[in-house]
Amino acid sequence: MRNPVRSESDAYRFLLLTVAYFALIVAAAAIETWLGLVVFLALTALVVWRVLRLRQDEAPLPTAAAATSEDVRRILVVANETVGGDELFAAIAARSEGVDEEVLVVCPALNSPLRTWVSDEDGAREAAQRRLDATLARLAAAGVEARGEVGDGDPVQAIDDALRTFGPDEIVISTHPEGRSNWLERGVVSIARERFDVPISHVVVDLAADGA
Q1: Cβ-contact 158, 165 below 8 angstroms
Q2: Residue 121: predicted pLDDT
Q3: What is the pLDDT of residue 3?
Q4: Which of 167, 168, 199, 201 could form a disulfide with 76 if both were Cys (CB 3.0 to 4.6 A apart)?
Q5: Within 13 Å of residue 86, how many CA atoms lie on the same side as its CB?
Q6: How far is CA 126 from the centre of its chain?
Q7: Do 172 and 75 meet the contact criterion of CB atoms below 8 Å apart?
Q8: pLDDT profile of the chain (212 residues), mean per 10
Q9: Which pLDDT score, from 0 to 100, does residue 2 have?
Q10: Contacts with 17 (C-beta within 8 Å, 6 or more apart), sequence order
């Protein structure tokens, strides 16, 4: 069954629904005690029904197997603001040299807590898509075969989602330098290395130096 809080955005929605659940019960009980009991039973029955439906309808997604051919290298790249950085581009190009590469670039749609709370993710996804399109165009111009997708705002969850359909030989995570990287502060690279049984490389992109 799907974990209701598998990502930050899901956690906000789950919290909002939980608050609404108890608020409705309290409001009904304030009118009449028996009405509060009726609302409690009805909402609880709805939650149980929903959980049972999820168990019946949701089949587990298989994790794709990595390529077995020595001439094909499958690379999963996870980056957000640094997705167009020179260091990341050089790392992808170096790993693709002399082999038939399959590159999947995932750009998490990072959002503010407030916009996540109100389920306003369109702006974050559009910004991520623009950066992703520019990077894919640059890779294509260099002869690197790559495709991309906008991922979950939680980079670790974005990796987990990608691994269900793409079996990489290596995962490349790109971040800002230490002290300017929210991902490093959250320990994204170390968490990913502990959770996923795939070699993980960390590429630091200094956009300020690239711009200079």
Answers
A1: no
A2: 58
A3: 47
A4: 168
A5: 7
A6: 15
A7: yes
A8: 49 70 81 82 80 54 52 88 88 84 88 42 79 88 87 90 92 92 92 93 84 52
A9: 44
A10: none
pLDDT at 22: 82
User: What's phi and psi for 17, nearest 5 deg?
Assistant: -65, -35
Contact at 8 Å (CB) between 78 and 155? yes
The 10 Å CB-count burial string (b at 16+, else e) for 34-57 is eebeebbeebeeeeeeeeeeeeee
Torsion of CA 184, 76, 7, 207, to 10 degrees: 40
Residue 86: both structure tokens together: 């020179």
What pLDDT, on the 0 to 100 scale, is given for residue 66? 54
Amino acid identity, position 61: L
Name the residue type at position 29: A
* pLDDT of res. 51: 66
Instruction: Name the 3-class secondary structure at 190.
Output: helix
Contact 180, 208 (CB under 8 A): no
Q: What 3-state DSSP class applies to 207?
A: helix
Distance CA 114, CA 112 (A): 5
Label residue 210 left, alpha or beta by phi (over 0 means left) and psi (-120 to 50 means alpha).
Answer: alpha
Rounded Cα–Cα distance for residues 96 and 43 (Å): 54
CA angle 151, 134, 196 (to 5 degrees): 35
